[in-house]
Design brief:
alpha+beta, 13 strands, disordered N terminus
Length: 271
């Protein structure tokens, strides 16, 4: 009887050990299963939150770059416009005086001299006048009266020169030394002028020879050489009878033309 109870006790102890081991095994697996379930939630949430932050930073960088580029472009454009304005001399008005030493007045007409067709040309350097240029608005530029010293006009014939001074222009008379042109209107002035590039204008005014004043229009070509010098040429056609310019009758001269070409080339320097 004692031996049988001992065997039963051993089986009971063995059975308890098996139950304990099974319980231990079950208890150890539960935490292991719960841990992976918690871990993904902890890692997924930061990843989702980080994505917008990166995109926002990238967008901010792009916007900042575009803003900087636009600002640089605007600054460059403004600088370029300023340089252009300075290059064109947009600094108000400036007066240029005609330099007689570098300028020339001419007149010409046709005639029959000793039975041969000829052209009589008179030249002189006696010309004075001012041109006022408005660099901010070229259309506001103006020209002062232009005065020609008729006593300096001379041709290739001393006989003709004597007749011009005594009878035709009568420039030997102190009252008639000068031929004057007073501009009244300028048309064709450009809005912009480029140094070195010529442009054409028309200048209308009153021409006075001796005691006769008549309207006359000159076709003028102007070349801005620099901001301190301009050059130009002007030409017009007048009729002798309009200004009472009579040619004395001489045996060697016949058929003097009514039309007289009056022209001048000028150089004007800034004052």
């Amino acid at each position: 009887m004692h031996i049988h109870l001992g065997k039963n006790r051993r089986w009971f102890v063995l059975l308890m050990l098996i139950v304990i081991m099974l319980l231990a095994a079950c208890g150890g697996n539960a935490p292991a299963a719960a841990s992976p379930a918690t871990a993904p939630a902890a890692t997924t949430e930061p990843a989702v939150a980080a994505a917008p932050t990166a995109a926002t930073a990238e967008n901010s960088t792009v916007q900042a770059t575009e803003t900087t580029s636009q600002t640089t472009a605007m600054t460059s454009t403004a600088s370029g416009e300023s340089s252009t304005a300075q290059a064109n001399g947009a600094t108000g008005s400036k007066t240029f005086a005609i330099d007689p030493a570098q300028s020339e007045v001419r007149f010409s007409l046709t005639e029959v001299l000793m039975g041969q067709d000829a052209t009589a040309i008179g030249r002189g350097n006696g010309i004075q006048g001012n041109v006022t240029v408005d660099f901010d608005d070229y259309s506001k530029s103006s020209i002062s009266p232009v005065v020609i010293d008729a006593t300096q006009l001379a041709t290739d014939s001393n006989m003709r020169n004597g007749m011009i001074r005594r009878a035709i222009l009568q420039s030997s008379n102190p009252d008639y030394h000068d031929i004057t042109f007073k501009p009244a209107a300028i048309s064709g002035l450009p809005g912009n002028v480029t140094i070195g590039q010529s442009f054409n204008i028309s200048v209308t005014g009153d021409l006075t020879i001796r005691d006769v004043t008549k309207p006359l229009t000159f076709a003028v070509t102007v070349t801005p050489v620099s901001q301190s010098q301009i050059k130009g040429s002007a030409a017009a056609t007048l009729m002798r009878d309009d200004f009472d310019l009579k040619i004395p009758s001489v045996p060697t001269v016949a058929d003097v033309s009514q039309a007289v070409q009056l022209a001048f080339d000028f150089v004007a320097n800034a004052q």
